[in-house]
Amino acid sequence: MRLAPTRKNIRFYQRRMRQARMVARALQSKHHPVLAHIIPMRRCNLSCAYCNEYDKVSAPVSTQEMLRRIDLLARLGTQIITISGGEPLLHPDLDEILRAIRSHDIIATIITNGYLLTPERIERLNKAGLEHLQISIDNVNPDDVSKKSLKVLDKKLEWLKEHGDFDININSVLGGGIAHPEDALTITRRALDLGFETTVGVIHDHGGQLQPLRGEERRVYDQILSERRPGLFAFAYDNLFHKNLTMGQPNEWQCGAGSRYLYICEDGLVHYCSQQRGYPAIPLEKYTVEDIDREYSTKKPCAPFCTVSCVHRVAMLDMIRNDPRDSLFRLFPPLTPGGPPSYPPIVRALSSIFLPEPNGKPPGLARRLTTGMAMRAFGLKRTDKSPLRDNL
Ligand code: SF4
Ligand code: SF4
Fold first, then answer.
1. Residue 392 has pLDDT above 60, yes or no
2. Which of 122-131, 312-321, 355-364 shows the lowest mean pLDDT across its residues?
3. How confident is the model at residue 391 (pLDDT cuts 50, 70, 90)?
4. What is the CATH number of the domain that holds 38?
5. Is the CB of 314 under 6 A from ligand 2?
C-alpha cells in the first residue's frame, strides 16, 4: 500500500521510523528503560468498579515537577513515556508535558478513558506531538461496573478518526466475569471499521493476577483473533503470553519491571508496575543504572500469572536480544503448518539487516554496508555490526 505524501502520511512514516529505531536501540542495550508509565494525577472522572488506580480527590502533580521527572527519565535513556492515571486529560498542562517528552526525542503516548476528548482537544494533542493514544472500552452500554462504553464513546472515536494525527489503539476486555463478553467483539469490529489498531486484554484481579476465560468468553476471544488485523506487538503477545493466560496457564518469563519498564507514581517513586506498587519504591532522582541492572534479573513471584501486557511486550524485546532466531519464531509462528514464520514487515526488515547469518558465516559486503547505514539512521553506536551482538 503506497500512501500519498500528505502531512498526515508523512507523520505516519516518521512514527514508524521512530518505532523501528526504538526497537533497534532496545535490542542493542539492556541498560536503559524501554517504557515508563508516569502518573500526572491520580484523580479520575470515572469510578470503574474493578480499578485500583484512581481516587477522587488528589491534585495534579505540578508541571515543574512533571518536567523534572521527564528530564530524569530521559537521563536514564527511556525510549517511550506513557502518561496514564487516573485520567491524564484532567491535568491542566498535559500538552506541555507531552512537548517536554518529545523534546528529548522520546516517544510520547497516553492512556485515557476518552471522556474529555473533543475535536479541539484532539488538535491540541496533535500540536503537542502525541504519537499514540489508547482507550480501553469495557462494554457497549454503561453499567454499574464501567461507564467506558461504546455507546458513550462512539462520537469521540469518530472525532479521533477525523482529527487524530497519531496512532490509536482501542483495547477491549474479557474475563473477570464481565456481564456481556460479546461486547468485546462489537467494540473490536467498530474500531477496525474506523481503521484503528485493536487489542484485547484479559482482566486481572486487584493483585495483577489472572482470571482465565471460560465458555462464551473463550468463543468471543477466538472470534476476535480471527477477525483482527495483527499489529506488531499484539500479534506476538497473543502467540506467547495470551495463549497461556486465556487458558489459565502460567507463563515462564523474566519480568523486566524496575528495569526495562518503570512505573512512576504521583509521588515520584519508581515501582515495578501499577499492580506491584511499593517495590522497590525508590525516588526517581535516586534511581540509577545499577538499579536497572539489578531489577533486570530479579525474579518476581507474581510473574507466572501476570496480565500486565505492556511489561510482557517489553520483555519480548529482551527475549529477542537473548535468542533472536528462536524467539522470533516463537513470537511469529507460521500461519500454516510447515510454512515460513509470519514476520510483520518491520520485523522482516530489521531481522534481515541485523540478525547474524543463520550459518554463522561472516556477513558479505552488501550486508555489512546495509547494516552500517541502518545503524547510522537509527543513531546506534558502531561498536558492533549488529545491535543484537552488543551487550548480550
Ligand atoms: S477510567 Fe481508568 S483510571 Fe479511571 S476509574 Fe476507570 S479504569 Fe480507573
Ligand atoms: S510480573 Fe512484573 S509486571 Fe507483572 S505484576 Fe509482577 S511485577 Fe508487575
1. no
2. 355-364
3. very low
4. 3.20.20.70
5. no
Name the strands in the sheet holding 261-264, side by side, starting at the edge strand that comes first in the sequence: 197-202, 167-174, 132-137, 107-112, 80-83, 35-38, 261-264, 269-271, 280-283
Q: Are residues 223 and 371 in the same domain?
A: no
Q: Which of 321, 347, 363 is the last residue of a domain?
A: 321
How far is the centre of ligand 2, averaged over its atoms, from the C-alpha of 391 (Å)? 25
Are residues 337 and 317 both part of a single domain?
Answer: no
- pLDDT at residue 384 greater than cutoff 60: no
**What's the gap in Å between 107 CA and the centre of ligand 1?**
23
At 300, the amino acid letter reads K
Sign of the dihedral defined by the CA atoms of residues 303, 304, 306, 310, in that order: positive
* CB of residue 262 inside a 6 A radius of ligand 2: no
pLDDT, one tens digit per residue, over 226-271 is 887 766 667 777 778 888 888 888 999 999 999 999 999 999 999 9
**How confident is the model at residue 190, as a pLDDT?**
98
Burial of 131 (0-12, 13-18, 19+ CB in 10 A): buried
Q: Please work out whether the CB of residue 138 comes within 6 Å of at least one atom of ligand 1.
A: no
* Cell 493514544 sits on residue: 133
* Contact by Cβ (8 Å): 107, 132: yes
Using most ligand atoms within 8 A of CB, pick from 245, 276, 296 the residue to mutate for ligand 2: 276
Specify whether the CB–CB gap between 125 and 133 falls below 8 A.
yes
Residue identifier of the C-alpha nearest atom 8 of ligand 2: 273
More confident residue, 193 or 230: 193
Do 27 and 144 fall within a single domain? yes
Nearest of 386, 313, 314, 316 to residue 351 by alpha carbon: 386
Domain membership of residue 337 as a residue range: 333-377
* 384 Cβ below 6 A of ligand 1: no
Mean pLDDT, the chain, rounded, equals 88
Q: Is the CB of 85 inside a 6 Å radius of any atom of ligand 1?
A: yes
Domain count, the chain: 2
Residue 1 forms part of a structural domain: no
d(CA 89, ligand 1 centre) in Å:
12
- 3-state SS assignment for residue 207: coil
